Amino acid sequence: MAVMQEIPDVAIAYGISDEFSFVFDRTSNLFDRRESKILTTVVSTFTSYYVHLWPLHFPDQALSPPMPSFDGRVVQYPSKQNMRDYMSWRQVDCHINNLYNSTFWALVRKGQMGPAEAEEALKVSRAFNTSSIPLSHNLKGTSAANKNEIMFSRFGINYNNEPVMFKKGSVLIREYGVRKLGEQPIPSAEGDQGAEPSKIQRERERRSRAKTEIKLEHEDIIGNKFWEARPWLLPEH
Predict the structure, then answer these.
(1) pLDDT tens for residues 207-227?
(2) How large is the angle between the packed helices 80-109 and 115-123, nearest 10 degrees?
(3) Which of 21, 107, 108, 174 is most enclosed, with most CB atoms within 10 A?
C-alpha cells in the first residue's frame, strides 16, 4: 500500500507473500517513462517500507543481517488483455502454490513426515488410491482435487475454509466507486475520450489519484466481474 501512496501513477497492485506486481496507468509519464528510474524507485520504495514496517507486524522478531533486499523488472504489455492475462496468471499461481504449501505442511506437522520426504512425495509422479496407499506415498503426482481430498480425509482440513488471503492473494486498488451492473462507466479523463490526454490533464489525474482511497481486497481477478465494476483500470483511451 505504501508504494501506491508514494507513487500515484500505480493504478493496481497484486501481491503474494513478498512478490508484488505494480501496474502503472497507461497514460503515466512518470520520469518520462524511463525504465531504470521507474524500476529503481519502485524497488527502493518497496524495500524501505518493508524494513520500516517490519517491527509493526513482527515486534518480537527483530531483523538481522542478511537484511531484506528485492529485485524487479519492468514489462510493457501491448494490450489490456495481455495485462489482464498476466494478473490472472499471478492469481492462479497463488492458488497452486498455496495448495501445495498447505498440503506440504500438513504432511510435516500432522503426518509426521520430514521436509525432504514431504517434498519428494509432492514431486514424484505415481498412480495411487488415497484410501488404500500409505500416507508416505499419497501425495506423489497428485492433482488439486487429490490434495484437497487428502487434507480433508487424513487431517480434517477443509481447504475451502482456509483464509481467502492465502488462496487469492492481495489486490490493492484505487477505489473511485465500484460500478453496479447497468451503470455507465466512470470516465477516466476529462474532455475528448478518444484523444490522448494532455500534460495538464495527466497531472490533474495524477493529483486526483493521489487523493483516492486505496483498498486492500482478496477477491477473484480472473473473471470479468472485478474489471467490469472498475472500468477506470482498463480505460478505452
Answers:
(1) 766 677 899 999 999 999 999
(2) 130
(3) 107
